[in-house]
Amino acid sequence: MGEFREYSICRDAQITLKKAAEDGVETAWDRYQKQLPQCGYCELGVSCRICVMGPCRIDPFGEGPQRGVCGADAEIIVARNLARMIAAGAASHSDHGRDLVEVLYSVGKGNAPGYTVKDPEKLKRLAKEYSIGVDNRGIEEIAVLLAEAMMEDYGMKKSEITLLGRVPAQRIELWKKLRVVPRGIDRETSEMMHRTHMGVDNDYVSILPPSGEEQPLRRIRRFHDRHRGIGYHLRDTTARDVRGKPRRHQGRPCQHSRTRA
User: Fold this and answer.
1) What is the mean pLDDT of each run of 10 residues along the chain (261 residues)?
2) How many domains is the chain partitioned into structurally?
3) Could you tell me if 118 and 203 lie in one domain?
């Protein structure tokens, strides 16, 4: 069992990995070993394939190319790659939440066989947070109105998402000072993908600015990691709680085929 401890600190996972090895079932760790040695340029973040004129790579030792075809240097490429990875992760989680909201909408419309609103009181409490009146309304109608209101948080019709009302006042003031209050879930990920495209934002300081300046990356990073429970993840769990379990999605990483530098 000790050989699997480097893969996970969870004993259940170690037992599962041991069983997979005994049965000859390939796991992510087996595929990882087959990828070694991994590309050194990619590992350092200085390989770029954003546009069709790439892939480009910057020589980290200063002996080879120092700029890509578009003129981006190592700092810009690293900033773009990091920002796009975070935006992709944020988009993945946010669309998971969107799927749950759409199911809640279908429940309200009577188009989701097997799903029901199992906690009507929680549904009503959540509806009130979105300023939805619940008096003299049926559960199905409330579910539809709530789902529609949640869907609006994905766009940019408002200056900030609704569930920020749950955030402590001191935290809100800090976010306002740093100018990182999330405006809309899709808005933030879309802006980051746009700004990190070739020929748009060629300044890593603009993409990863210091504290106190406009910081779309910091908005996305907060959504994706530090405060997931405040934004779309909270919407995900609250929607799931009132109507059932979500589907699980899996993806696979893309690897460059070059050898380690």
Assistant:
1) 82 92 93 90 90 90 91 91 91 90 94 92 93 92 94 79 88 85 86 88 76 45 40 47 43 35 35
2) 2
3) yes
Gap between the Cα atoms of 146 and 103, Å rounded: 12
Assigned domain for 73 exists: no
How far apart are alpha carbons 246 and 118 in whole angstroms? Answer: 14
Is the entire prediction scored with pTM above 0.85? no
109 and 200 part of one domain: yes
pLDDT of residue 46: 92
Distance CA 241, CA 238 (A): 5
Q: Which domain holds residue 14?
A: 1-36
3-state secondary structure the chain: CHHHCCCCCCHHHHHHHHHHHHHCCCCHHHHHHHHCCCCHHHHHCCEECCCCCCCEECCCCCCCCCCCCCCCCHHHHHHHHHHHHHHHHHHHHHHHHHHHHHHHHHHHHCCCCCCCCCCHHHHHHHHHHCCCCCCCCCHHHHHHHHHHHHHHCCCCCCCCCHHHHHCCHHHHHHHHHHCCCCCCHHHHHHHHHHHCCCCCCCCHHHHCCCCCCCCHHHHHHHHHHHCCCCCHHHHHHHHHHHHCCCCCCCCCCCCCCCCCC
Asked if 48 contacts 41 with a C-beta cutoff of 8 angstroms, the reply is: no
Tell me if 27 is assigned to some domain. yes
